[in-house]
Amino acid sequence: MNTKNTYNFFEELDNLDIDEQGRERFPNRNPKKLPKSEQSFLQKQDDSSASFKFTYKAARFEEWWLLDSLGDFYEHQWISDVLRRVKGGKEASVYQCLAGSAIPAGGLVAAKVYRPRMLRNLKNDSAYREGRTDLNEDGQSLFKDADVHAMQKRSSYGEELRHTSWIAHEFTTLQTLHAVGADVPAAYAMQKNAILMGYIGDELTSAPALNEVSLAHSEAKILFERVLHNIKLFLDANRIHGDLSAYNILYWDGNITLIDFPQVVNPSGNRNAFKVFERDVIRVCDYFIKQGLKADGRKLAADLWQAHGHKVHQEVDVRLLDAEDPQDRALWKKQKSGR
Ligand SMILES: Nc1ncnc2c1ncn2[C@@H]1O[C@H](COP(=O)(O)OP(=O)(O)OP(=O)(O)O)[C@@H](O)[C@H]1O
Ligand SMILES: [Mg+2]
To answer: What is the DSSP letter of 58?
Structure first.
């Protein structure tokens, strides 16, 4: 099957739901009636699974999806086994894997495998993409006219490039932020549909997110400061998380790790940057206020922003607004009237 068909096929696999017991539900399609090209693709996957067998008991379609997404990690010895699924999300699933010989420290690593739905669900990714270049699967900027054109035209090849670019942004951001000492997982390798990073947790339990944890007052204070320290490091490195909240901060052994960076925003080259930044800071404050701390998210965001030499732009890009949301509509009217 060519790349386009493979991509379309995996688009369809998006309809596949896997329930808690690992049973597959594939509502729109009867896998027994697949066209020839897909049958031969699946046959090939069955053949390659002969060399990459993993401990995790994946259901049939999920296994193919994993072989396609993680096969290169296995071949290049970044991983030697897939042990279990940590989280099966709508947009990405995370698997606990055993490090291969390419990772000298060994131990456990986390593979985040994306579903194409991730891209479709973005309300309008241009508001985030503004001010950042698109990247290929090697983390290099896309510069070929044909590629840029394919993305603008939203051809299926272009959509695949866009999908990979989001993943590459997550990967290169983890590399950059880890290098400056931020509390993020180490990034080991990326494939066009998956990234491999440090695993937080132990064999039996992966780290819970902060929103699942209640903190003692003294610990909340320390961790709030630590999150702010990270937010400042991100700004120093020209990054805004873009989807920061207690859901994307893992907690383990008293330490925090910030995760989930595909939508990362450039603070200098993006008109929406301050609003996105402010939303991140307010959400973090909301969590810590619930833990008994006092914080003023709006003021804190403006202070941090200005301390990093940025101007506070109040105008929101209309593409970020939701026409169905009364608050967004009111904001749009206010902006239009110039008040
Ligand atoms: N490095 C890691 N170590 C341990 N667990 C992780 C790691 N990265 C992610 N996870 C787990 O996987 C979940 C989903 O990861 P992430 O937030 O990066 O993806 P997502 O795109 O938000 O997925 P979803 O749409 O399911 O929320 C996290 O909430 C966390 O439970
Ligand atoms: Mg998340």
So the answer is: -
